[in-house]
Amino acid sequence: MPADPLHRAGKPQRSTTSLPPSGSRTSAIEVRRSTRRRRTVSAYREGDRTVVLIPARMSEAEEQRWVSVMLDKLAAQESKRVLGDTELSERAARLSDLYFDGRARPVSVRWVTNQNTRWGSCTPAEGSIRLSHRLQGMPEYVVDYVLVHELAHLLVPGHGPRFWELLEAYPRTERARGYLEGVVAADRLPHLPAARDE
Fold first, then answer.
1. Which of 41-50, 72-81, 158-167, 184-193 is the least confident region?
2. How far apart are CA 8 and CA 13, in angstroms?
3. What pTM does this model have?
4. Do residues 87 and 99 make contact, with C-beta atoms less than 8 angstroms apart?
5. Angle CA(117)–CA(28)–CA(144) in degrees, nearest 5?
6. DSSP state of 189
7. Which of 10, 85, 147, 170 would be a feasible disulfide site paired with 110, CB 3.0-4.6 Å?
8. Tens-place pLDDT, residues 79-107
9. 46: helix, coil or strand?
10. β-pairing verdict for 120-123 and 128-132
11. What residues have CB less than 8 Å from 101, skipping those under 6 apart?
């Protein structure tokens, strides 16, 4: 992240660490200190980065403690929003009805944690679809695209012209593919530790 060229009174100071806490899906934590912020601490996700807003007067120890507290809080909020396997199966059925006239009927649809190089996979002979846990927390249209992609494999196993014709039915195919390509490209960028503002 580029360093702040100016340090004016009240302008937030930023520091970044590239080491995520265990269990976190983010690759960086950015702490923004503000002289206007007196007591409150807040946090939000910005792409694959977590931004934590704290008062400028906080010590290093207080910063570390609050970063940990806010990451736990965000994780708890996000875990409530993540679809379970049952909801994922129901979603796949709705997408099949919508885009394939219900012809793609998987036997099982579930999240898996062992797919780090693929977003999803399908075994047509078994009727099973697996989505990478890395999709959790991404926009719904991206998860839907991966589901539609894998559902299409139940009808056409390979990636030939007929397969890509089926995917044209999903209106956000290009946008979702662009999003996923951006995530892959960002993951390949070097994560350099940023210097702390003094």
1. 72-81
2. 9
3. 0.57
4. no
5. 45
6. S
7. 85
8. 555 567 888 999 999 999 999 999 999 99
9. strand
10. antiparallel
11. none
Q: Can you tell me which residue has the tokens 């006239």?
A: 101
Cα separation of the two ends of the chain: 16
Cβ–Cβ < 8 Å for 128, 122: yes
How do beta strands 49-55 and 42-46 pair? antiparallel
List the Cα angle 155/158/161 in 5-degree steps.
85
- Report yes or no: 28 and 189 within 8 Å, Cβ to Cβ: no
> Tokens 């100016």, residue?
6
Q: By the 8 A CB rule, do 128 and 106 touch?
A: yes
Distance from C-alpha of 81 to C-alpha of 32, rounded to nearest angstrom: 26
**Of residues 13, 20, 64, 73, the one with CA closest to residue 43:** 73
Looking at residue 190, its amino acid is P
How far apart (Å, rounded) are the C-alpha atoms in residues 31 and 24?
16
pLDDT digits (tens, 9 = 90+) for 167-177: 999 999 999 99
- Domains of the chain, first to last: 13-81 (no CATH), 85-187 (3.30.2010.10)
